[in-house]
Task: inverse folding
């Protein structure tokens, strides 16, 4: 499994490639599509931007918050819990307003199975943490 430090460095390089190419490069990672997620910081109130892989689940881009198996949710989850309204950018220029919806129950389980089928690494990350891994659908508004 890749270390968290190495993963952060890879995502930083990915973000540079994304920015320089206007989203033409780096729009897929490990076979999964990538979206730029813009949230509002839950403490700062400032825009926060990350690139993150997603799966298309029931017609909505859906994010899996494994945080590489860490015992705490990623910052973007905390931001979306505080303010579910966000913006996504696909391929560097397709902007869309979205509202986060945290999945639960059977819907969450179906999404988890879909995620693991798309990328087996999710299963390893899920097993590495004792917290329930949030899965977030981004519904168009």
Result:
């Amino acid at each position: 499994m890749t270390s968290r430090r190495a993963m952060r460095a890879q995502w930083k390089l990915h973000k540079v490639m994304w920015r320089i190419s206007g989203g033409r490069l780096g729009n897929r990672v490990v076979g999964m599509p990538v979206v730029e997620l813009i949230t509002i910081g839950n403490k700062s109130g400032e825009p926060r931007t990350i690139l993150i892989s997603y799966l298309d689940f029931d017609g909505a881009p859906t994010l899996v918050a494994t945080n590489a198996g860490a015992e705490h949710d990623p910052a973007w989850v905390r931001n979306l819990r505080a303010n579910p309204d966000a913006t996504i950018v696909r391929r560097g220029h397709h902007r869309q307003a979205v509202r986060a919806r945290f999945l639960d129950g059977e819907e969450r389980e179906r999404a988890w199975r879909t995620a693991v089928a798309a990328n087996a690494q999710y299963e390893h990350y899920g097993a590495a943490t004792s917290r329930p891994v949030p899965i977030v659908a981004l519904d168009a508004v």
The mean pLDDT is 91. The chain is about 35% helix and 35% strand.
